[in-house]
Request: fold
Amino acid sequence: MTASITSHAAHAAAVEALVAGYRAVPPGSSVRLRKPSSNLFRFGRTPAVELDTSGLTGVLEVDPVTRTAVVQGMTTYEDLVDATLPHGLMPLVVPQLKTITLGGAVTGLGIESSSFRHGLPHESVREMDVLTGGGDVVTATPDGEHADLYAGFPNSYGTLGYALRLVIDLQPVKPYVRLTHRRHDTAADVTAAIVEACAGPYDFVDGVVFSAGEHYLTLGEFVDEPLTPVSDYTGQQVFYRSLRRRAVDHLTVRDYIWRWDTDWFWCSRAFGVQQPVVRALWPRRWRRSDVYRRLVAWDRRQGVSDRLRRLGGLPPEEPVVQDVEIPVARLPEFLEAFHTDVGIAPVWLCPLKLREPRDGSGAVIGPARSWPLYPMTPGELYVNAGFWSAVPQEPGRPDAHNRRVEQLVAQLGGHKSLYSTVHYSEDEFWRRYNGTAYRALKERYDPRGVLPDLYRKVAEAKGG
Reply:
């Protein structure tokens, strides 16, 4: 597919309309961007004035010479990929789900199997225009007047402002990706394999933990021609199941990028979509993450699953939907405690390291920069562990498993993404997410507090 290009004139008009709408918000009112979908897991809607972003969902330019794209802030990665692939290019990091927006991934973080080499999506941003909480549009770059906003925008979740236009780096692709799936029996073995793979020539590295004794590491490489038949996991076959059956596999580059979206990793099983009969009847156009997420949101609002569990005499469940980053050396400790204390499987593993500047040959030529609101150590390899399910509640402790995850992350020197539930006290939250730096940014870019405070938004408010 080829995405249409949005004109700069249309972009300017959309920005003007959004800024006018923002400045017209009555004092004391909450503000929210109106979007057709969300990838946050904080359900419920708090009263707010919604701003129309429908004019900010396009790609403005793709430059094959400089390998850059100019993109509006509410553009989905699905549309961005459709615009860049015809040029033989893709973003350096494409989060797994099609409806994640570029602006959302930059302000709320994102990750994928290229993150061990290219870091997180915000690290490939060259500049961005931001509508600040104060109602101004500023251009933030690494070294300009608003370098503090450029550095502090990641992990601010729209509490400092909204990205309107971004210039990002792209990377060249080949038509296919060859996947090698390797089984490892212990957490120590898969950890050692992750370290070795991330020092190697691979383009993509990620893995899946099916149990304490079954781990798979997937090594991906761009190739011009497939050596085996090209697989299609948008039909009857399910991608994550293939890890156990195929030592080597090939996908088109587009199908590789979206390999996890068709079944929302493995979470489509909750809707029966992995059952052959149900899958055959479930329209292909509905086999995608945003459809499943809307179904979950409807269920959370209506409480259907909770009522059915009560009628069946089953205990209530605690949703445990989290992504955490663990220093690679501590990964075996994390997995051992997680299997014992939480018990969710599968678990996704995705190594990441802050992006290091490289020359044309790919050699590292300098240290990675740091990002104040999500403090990771430059040069250190981390592993993201993602787990998205529910477990029976402990009596009288409805958040016990989520709190245990947060304790583990703290004990092991890791970090926790904020797209889902947060259970830290306010003091602990600000210790972990650099409250001093955040307050300085808030004072400069949202002095009247029009946008919500970060802790209030992610830990207290129901709305995303």
